[in-house]
Fold:
Amino acid sequence: MARIDVYLRSIERFAARGAVLTSGQSVTLKFPTGDRHATQVTPHDQLVILVREIAPPHCLDQVDAGKPVKFEHESAGHRYQLAVQPRPGAWVVSIDVAAEAAPAAPVPGPPPPAPEDLAAEPSAGEMLIERTQYEPRSGAAGGSSAFDDVVAAARRAGASDVYLMSGSPPCVRIHGELVVWSDRPALDAEVLERELGAIASAEVRAQWIERGDAVFAHSSAGAGRQRVHWVRDRQGVGATVHLVAATAPTPAQLGLPDALPALLAARRGLFVLGGPRGAGTSSTLAALLHHAGEAGLGFVVTVESPIEVIVGAGRGLISQREVGSHVRSAAEGVRAAQREGADLIALACGDDREALAAGLDAVEAGVSLLVAVTAPSVPGAIERVIEAAPPQRAAHARALVAGHLVGAVTQVLCRRPSGPRVPAFELLAGGPAVAAAIRDNRSFQLGSVMSTGRGQGMSALNDSLVDLTRRRVISADEAVRRSASPTELRALLEAP
Structure:
């Protein structure tokens, strides 16, 4: 009998949908109601042997090269789909019951037994399903966890981010300012790890154990949707939690330039969205996707890591895909969307060079690409896209971007005297002058193009800052702080 059969019989015995085996970690069984954790641990060497016993030769070649693989396995008349991620010293094997072998939907009846009841009298060689360190406590059933309580309180306070670090009280960021909740006790490392482990998937937990760093999305009734960055430091466990809007904002709600949504719908090509980290580009991306759906711009596919704001389809069709959950990598997600005939691909993880290169290939094939990158200015964002191409294709990439650029926008967040921060933008529309500057490696001249292109809806960052200052949305001092050219800005503010 193959080693995997012990796990497959347990999947059948408990009517699970699958299992996740991670080197040196407890086995996770997948149920429609969520993951359950077994006490049985799979040693790394046993997991390697298990895979080598059943994987086809061509898959073993991929595994030996350190590449993830997928294959099917049949046992006792049932078919299973396996996905292997051969990380150094910490493999992850995901087992899913094939569609035709999946157990029938249960007839409504009494609630399932508690984990301790499921463990009664297992057959020899089968696993026990019991509570592990990550299993939510039964007393919390139907209620909220301490994690959700803190996040819900932060949302009520108008925070954008929550910082949870072992040995320190919770901190929140409100209107850009860090606030320490000193009236709350310092966070315990063991409790915090248990809380985070209970809401993360088995794959995310394995990644955090291996690297000390993992990002995932989480939703709960009281705390809403969040992007959770789970980390490890000298004190133990920590997390930075970004609070995500329940619905996608509209361009008008964010104060986006009127020309921005129109540019996106004008013609097919490349549209670049940029800004420094924490500048609100995720919200702007969601607003543009909301507009794409409402305007009926066709079949839109997003590739995100993770999915943050859930966007309605409107009059079009929007398929949101998460790296690791729905696609193996961002680059593969882009290529799949192109093969499916997407009209617009939105790449939220534009700092992935391979994904960006795949996106440029899609643009060359006639697909529109909306890509978000980390860059402080429009020229920097455009150069970031070009630099994603391999050195031998750099000239081709520059010509491609020059010929297909529809527009580019970057933003910074400015503090108001009171209330939430407001974005200031610089906006560039593609055209002959822009194409020539990019093609000739003169992106530094694009600032002048934006300043002289106000009649076409373009705007330099200083123009946007002057407008916000004169409308008394922000102070002159704040405008100067956010400007890349403060001397020029002061002159504009002093002009009649």
